[in-house]
Amino acid sequence: MGWQAGTGLGVTGEGIVTPVESKLRPKGMGLAFKGFAEKTDQSKSEARRRGEAVSDDEDKPATKLGRKAAKAHEERAQAWKKQRKTKIRIAHKTYEEIVAEAGQEPAPIDLGQIIDATGATPREVSSLADVSIASWTPTADPMRLPEIRHNLRLIAEACKGDLDGLAREAKALEERKKWIRAEDARLRKRVEEEAELISRLQQVNLVVEDINSRARELASTYEPSLETFSDDFEKLLGQYAKEFDRYRLDEVIVAAIAPVVRRMLAQWHPLQDPVAFTPLFRLWRNALKMALSDEKPQDQISAYGSSTVISSAPVVEKPMTPYESLLWNAWLPKVRSSINNDWSPDDPQPAVRLYEAWSSFLPPFIRDNFFDQLVLPKIVKAVDDWNPRSSKVPLQTLVFPWLPHVGLRLDEVLGDARRKVKSILRHWTVAEGMLDHLAVWKDVFDVGDWDAMLLKYVVPKLGNRLREDFRVNPRNQDMAPLQDVMLWENLLSPTVMSRLLETEFFPKWLDVLHIWLVQPSPSFEEVAQWYSFWKGTFSENVQSMPGVAQGFTCGLQLMNKAIELGPNASTQLPRPDHHRSSSPALTAAGKQKAAPKMRPARTQEITFRSIVEEYTSSHNLLFMPAGRVHEKSRMPLFRVSPTADGKGGLLVYIQDDAVWAPDGDEYRAISLEDMVLRGRKDK
């Protein structure tokens, strides 16, 4: 761009000749700090080349001496000026302000040993003030007066120290006065409270003496009564509630009424008059320190209306309260004697009424003793001795009244009772008719156990009754066998009842209808009346069962077909198919499952067996206990069959969530589809 060496940049050569240089500034140094020259040699030569004046002083670093000389020069320049007088403001503080600002005296600083070496001979001094006193030197300046200034400073410091000490002492005295005034008020209040307490205790003592005097009077009375104590008890609880709890005056109350209670219990008949003392005990609940019966435990279960505590914590034995001791030593022996000598489980109501009247007043350990030692042993023995033919009362009379109260003891009470019911059904025959009060046991069994028990002991006998004794005869119809079966309508599940009628009733009924329709010139009006009669025989609940509805639908279709064929019906009317399994209605009937009746605090567990039973039912088959076990596995055998007679079908057992069926001499696991197919073929 036309540039030549040795000339400056630009058209006229006025620019710089050499490139821009930089000069490193020392670390931590600001601009022109301590006279540091910022210009580089290149910038100075360029300035000289342009004709600018450059001072050589910039090349010399600033020195400490130069700064002092500059300061002295500035002081000389200001010496001729008149000094401005500074007005010193003196602030005065009152004694109260000094006391308020006074703080704790600072801890002295320990400097150790101090040696004064300012004189000809070194000496040890106690403080630095001693050194400053001895370190003055004569001076010719009449304005300095160092001795007087030093002495004044010492006097001022000593006075200030004394004043600070007095201020701190005054402040401590003020705090002490405040504390003394507060302590005086507290002690005066304490004295008043103690005086009031003494007065109240004197009043309590008068009431207690009154109670003791009444107790001594009643001890010699022919007919004692507890009602005379009510006024004194109410006074203790109403006017002296704090003293009642603090000094455990319930012991006084129990000690006063105990002799009277024992005399009254001696004449009491618990089974005849169970509520004799309950009104007074309910009125004295707080006075006797009874535990509240409505307190809800954190962990409890409910069964048949009763709540029972479940506690995983270890049982801690506690001493009995005076009231609990009174019940244990006076009330419980009288009740024990009545239960053991005068009460029979055949008539449970007197004992039930006794427990219901006193349950809210009894502590848990007395309730447990009442059941475990008095009531349950007699109930268990009565159930074990019960005989359906010789006993005078039904089995449920012995058990059911206690179910809302026994809690976790249910299994102990119901175990033998359930076995008795199963034994009754095992030996039951259809000729005996419907068992009395059997329906009340339905809610006592689990749904699965109830259905399995009926399938095992009842359904085969009902099926045999229809198969052997029931005949459809329009001229002389005997309804007794069918009526015997329909008595079980509310106890059997809809699936079982529907299947029972499908297999044992409708084949006979449809055959008779077909025979009637193929006769020459049948009376369709009579056939329709006969059809209406049979349909009205069943309740609406049974008619709504899909299997039953399908059976009557087949009969209606058969009648309509005969009307269509007319005279050709005798030769062309097809016979009814009794073994159809693909009918939509029959399939729906098979899939229908009775909704289990849920009881409070009871749930029906879903098991593999329940799945197999539902699958079998959905294919119009029955899954019934066979009453035997497999020889090797010792598992119970079940029969999968389309009929309820207990014959034929496929024998299987369930183990490890699989169905095992015979394969030659051994059993092997099969699928549910194979089980259904083999159950139909092996009939």
TrEMBL record:
It comes from Daedalea quercina L-15889. GO terms for molecular function: nucleic acid binding. One of its GO terms (cellular component) is U2-type post-mRNA release spliceosomal complex. Residues 1-36 form the G-patch domain. Residues 35-73, 567-600 are annotated as: Disordered. This is TFP11-domain-containing protein. Pfam families: G-patch, GCFC. Residues 36-53 have a biased composition (Basic and acidic residues).
